[in-house]
Amino acid sequence: MSEAPFRYSPGDVVRVRTGPPEPHCRTPFYLRGQIGVIAGIAGRYRDPSLMAFHKPGLPERALYRVEFRHHDIWQTEAGPDRIMADLYEHWLDPATRETPDAP
Predict the structure, then answer these.
(1) pLDDT digit of tens for each residue in the chain (103 aa)?
(2) In angstroms, rounded to a whole number, what is the distance separating the alpha carbons of residues 69 and 74?
(3) Cys-Cys with 39: which of 11, 29, 63, 65 at CB 3.0–4.6 Å?
């Protein structure tokens, strides 16, 4: 049995969902609603939000490295040019380069 393909590839533009957090959420609040670019695929891992409640965390979820422009997040020029975050696929939606402020 082959593993399902990843939904996103490096270079894809995504928006972080703004929905309510899971009981044990791993998505930073300050990134919700922000647009970023897939920088890499970290792999598939058991769901830590389920494992926090002593469940097996299955099925595994895809984890992506997503890059954001620092200025878009904090509206300041101070700090690094980019912010990198590891985010699970179920927190990401496709976006387009035409979306305002896409990196």
Answers:
(1) 446 789 999 999 999 999 777 767 788 999 999 999 999 999 999 988 888 889 998 999 999 999 999 988 988 777 778 999 999 999 999 997 665 454 4
(2) 9
(3) 65
pLDDT tens-digit readout, 13-28: 999 999 777 767 788 9
Give the residue carrying structure tokens 């769901």: 47
Torsion sign across C-alpha atoms 38, 89, 49, 102: positive
The CATH code of domain 13-94 reads 2.30.30.50
What does the longest C-alpha to C-alpha distance in the chain come to? 49
Task: Answer left, alpha or beta for residue 34, where phi above 0 means left and psi between -120 and 50 means alpha.
Answer: beta
Q: What is the pTM of this model?
A: 0.84
Q: Can you say whether the dihedral through the CA atoms of 94, 58, 39, 21 is positive or negative?
A: positive
* Residues 6+ away with beta carbon under 8 Å from 16: 27, 31, 32, 33, 34, 35, 36, 66, 87, 91, 92, 93
